[in-house]
């Protein structure tokens, strides 16, 4: 047995402080209960002081150590922790988050553009555009972990978030073509013969990897380099060949029959080839599908026999004021809904018939919608006169244009184009040859005279107060038109367009007699009155006389003076002019064209 002073503590024991005592040899130690044992000597006063000091020291050290531990672990964030220079140690989560957000707001470098280098090309990306931010909540969670630092600081890296898709899109927009594109797999048709397009790998940036690099580098660094990686289509060459065998070839092996109560539709292999889609998505995956729009276009005429077109609600002006005529529903073969079933049938080379799925086809415009447009009164009307009666080609062209525009409805915010509405005015539409201005002189041309209808329509919309978008007056002035506020037209280069800038619908009504054409605008009045004020004519020029070879293409004229003039459109409300719009045009002097015989020398005269 060793003496108490020689005892060595083990690693499992708690260190013990031994106070000094009077040394007694081990072999002299007697049991104090033994009557023979001598009484112990009283300790000296100096010894008592040393014992007391040692005990107090141990107590102070113990209390101090505990207090330090409590102080170091106060709050949710350990003492000494910093994030981007913000001291968060000892703070609760809410306080720490507020302090970190304040620090982020003070740090202007966090909004500085990030330079991303890809193959020696640089893109500049704004953090706000790609969702590149410090995730405050995640950063506070990271900061709360670990031990405190009593005599220093411990920097915790911020947790960074970025939108990988937005970052990828921003880089592609800035850099344009990146790497080498992979050859996408596909099955294409040469006529009705399917042909396999085998895939091959390319090089590209990987959005997930790009985002990872940015998160790891920012905000410590505002410049990163993103490598290119090899990308492979998810569909292999063998799978493309299998699609040719199992899908494409059977699909065009014969016609497809679609049956319905109204008859049978035969879809030929050529129409199937046009509508069967066997191309890959951006990952290179091929999902066979049927393009219903292409199939409908390929079999439009025979398909129409199985369907009933819906009839839109419309306005009628019978009785002198607009009334609404109800529309009607139709029926349609739902090729889009039938797509998956058609694909299954096309995989077979024997049973190639399918029953049509017929759905209701609602009109594009119903009566309720028309009733909300405010087409209730005649807002303006304008008439121009013509000569020759309805038997002349020019008059017939005017009437034909009027027939095509009759009942046209222009919704609020829409722009009406006369060229777009009528299409090219040709013989097939009923237009005839009549004089047009071409190369500065009157020449026979198909649709001549439509400019008079255009001028009439322009003035009707002009006095309705609608926005003028495009018009061009004639090169020469004709007194059948109002000066300046008139318009020519020539497909497709010269058009007349106006915008319905009112909150109400605009209905165009046309009417004609043997010597006049009238256009009226029905809607709800926005202006009390629209009128015109003219300036005096100025810069007046006289016509010259020009002799042309006689023949069918020569049209003689008497000549007209040229001049410049202004027209002011005045918009009135409550008896006051609240808006003025200026129109100015310079008319050339129309030459006095003389049609001479071929033998007569063609000598222009001043």
Automatic annotation (TrEMBL):
Species: Actinoplanes lutulentus
Alphabetic keyword roster: Membrane, Transmembrane, Transmembrane helix
Domain (YoaR-like putative peptidoglycan binding) ranges: 247-349
Family annotation (Pfam families): PG_binding_4, VanW
Bilayer-spanning residue ranges: 51-73
InterPro entries named in the record: Glycopeptide_resist_protein (IPR052913), Vancomycin_resist_VanW (IPR007391), YoaR-like_PG-bd (IPR022029)
Signal peptide positions on this chain: none
Descriptive protein name: Vancomycin resistance protein YoaR
Domain of life: Bacteria
């Amino acid at each position: 047995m060793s003496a108490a002073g020689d005892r060595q503590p083990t690693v499992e024991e708690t260190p013990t402080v031994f106070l000094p005592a009077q040394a007694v040899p081990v072999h002299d130690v007697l049991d104090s209960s033994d009557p023979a044992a001598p009484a112990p000597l009283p300790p000296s006063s100096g010894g008592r002081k040393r014992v007391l000091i040692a005990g107090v020291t141990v107590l102070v050290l113990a209390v101090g150590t505990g207090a330090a531990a409590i102080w170091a672990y106060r709050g949710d964030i350990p003492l000494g922790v910093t994030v981007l220079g913000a001291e968060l140690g000892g703070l609760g989560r809410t306080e720490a988050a507020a302090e970190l957000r304040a620090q982020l707001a003070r740090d202007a470098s966090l909004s500085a553009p990030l330079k991303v280098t890809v193959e020696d090309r640089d893109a500049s990306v704004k953090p706000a555009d790609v969702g590149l931010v410090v995730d405050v909540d995640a950063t506070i969670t990271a900061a709360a972990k670990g031990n405190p630092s009593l005599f220093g600081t411990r920097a915790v890296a911020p947790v960074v978030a970025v939108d990988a898709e937005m970052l990828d899109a921003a880089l592609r927009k800035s850099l344009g073509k990146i790497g080498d594109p992979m050859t996408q797999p596909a099955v294409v048709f040469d006529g009705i013969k399917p042909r396999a397009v085998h895939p091959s790998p390319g090089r590209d940036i990987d959005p997930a990897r790009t985002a990872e690099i940015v998160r790891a580098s920012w905000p410590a660094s505002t410049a990163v380099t993103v490598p290119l990686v090899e990308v492979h289509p998810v569909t292999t060459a063998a799978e493309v060949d299998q699609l040719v065998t199992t899908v494409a070839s059977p699909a065009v092996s014969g016609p497809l029959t679609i049956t319905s109560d109204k008859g049978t539709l035969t879809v030929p292999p050529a129409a199937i080839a046009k509508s069967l889609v066997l191309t890959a998505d951006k990952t290179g995956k091929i999902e066979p599908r049927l393009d219903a729009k292409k199939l409908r276009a390929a079999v439009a005429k025979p398909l129409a026999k199985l369907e009933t077109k819906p009839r839109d609600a419309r306005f009628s002006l019978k009785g002198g004021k607009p009334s609404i005529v109800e529309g009607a529903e139709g029926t349609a073969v739902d090729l889009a809904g039938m797509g998956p079933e058609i694909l299954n049938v096309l995989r077979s080379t024997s049973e190639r018939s399918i029953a049509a799925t017929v759905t209701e086809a609602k009109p594009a415009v119903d009566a309720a919608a028309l009733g909300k447009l405010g087409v209730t009164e005649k807002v303006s009307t304008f008439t121009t006169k013509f000569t020759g009666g309805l038997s002349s080609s020019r008059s017939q062209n005017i009437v034909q244009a009027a027939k095509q525009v009759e009942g046209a409805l222009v919704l609020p915010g829409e722009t009406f184009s006369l060229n777009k509405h009528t299409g090219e005015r040709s013989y097939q539409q009923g237009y005839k040859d009549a004089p047009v201005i071409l190369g500065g002189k009157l020449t026979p041309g198909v649709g001549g005279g439509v400019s008079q209808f255009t001028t009439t329509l322009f003035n009707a919309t002009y006095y309705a107060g609608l926005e003028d978008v495009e018009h061009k007056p004639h090169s020469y002035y004709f007194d059948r038109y109002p000066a300046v506020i008139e318009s020519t037209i020539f497909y497709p280069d010269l058009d007349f367009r106006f915008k319905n800038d009112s909150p109400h619908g605009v209905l165009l009504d046309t009417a004609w007699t043997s010597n006049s054409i009238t256009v009226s605008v029905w809607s709800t009045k926005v202006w009390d009155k629209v009128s015109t004020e003219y300036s005096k004519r100025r810069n007046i020029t006289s016509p010259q006389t020009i002799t042309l070879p006689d023949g069918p293409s020569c049209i003689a004229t008497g000549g007209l003076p040229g001049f410049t003039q202004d027209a002011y459109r005045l918009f009135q409300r409550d008896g006051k002019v609240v808006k003025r719009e200026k129109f100015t045009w310079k008319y050339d002097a129309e030459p006095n064209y003389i049609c001479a015989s071929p033998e007569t020398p063609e000598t222009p005269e001043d």
